[in-house]
Amino acid sequence: MPQEHNHDHCHDHAHDHDHDHDAADLGPQDSLYSHIDRANVVALNTSKLGEVVIKPWDKRLDEAESLESDADDQMIIRVPFTGSVRLRAVLLKTGPGDQTPRKVQIYANQEHMDFDDIEQLTPTQEFEIAQGREVGEYAVKTAKFSNVSSLTLFFPESQGSDTIQIYYLGFLGHWTERKNNPVITVYEAQANLADHTKIQGTEGNFYTPQT
Known about the structure:
Layout: H1 2-10, H2 14-26, E1 42-44, E2 67-68, E3 75-94, E4 103-108, E5 125-128, E6 136-139, E7 148-155, E8 165-176, H3 182-188, H4 193-196
Antiparallel strand pairs: 1-3, 2-8, 3-6, 3-7, 3-8, 4-5, 4-7
């Protein structure tokens, strides 16, 4: 067996080596990678799809794929989840050097936010980003991210370059299956439709009763 050979060859270091190898492949137990709706990750002001930076744990240091900002040194990445998330931390690998964003502003449940909305919205939390080639872990205030269906990350500027670059984006936390919205049941019920049509903004969702 290969494992027995490793123990014979590595002696006292074999246990540490095997443990580190396993951890690198599997990642943290509370990684949310498998619960990200990767096909619908959106990146604004880039020439690539946002999902290229949503990588498995063992690819977190891989620099073959990245997102680089296009027109200037700003970028927005919107990440939807397949359920309800209680977020613990955001993981980022950026750079190199002055292509590192100066900071990241994180918004919970702002699915359609774009650059025009930034000035009107207050981030749920923000972090300064240090230069470095490793993956940075940014622990959030969990109480503010306890029922998250999507996260929007805004990178407002670089640390000196004309563009910014993101290699890896990951999340740690707890995922639960999202329950169906009970409002759907009300819409489908054969109730008094005349009452429903009085709700502002929903007239187009219902049939007008025959008179």
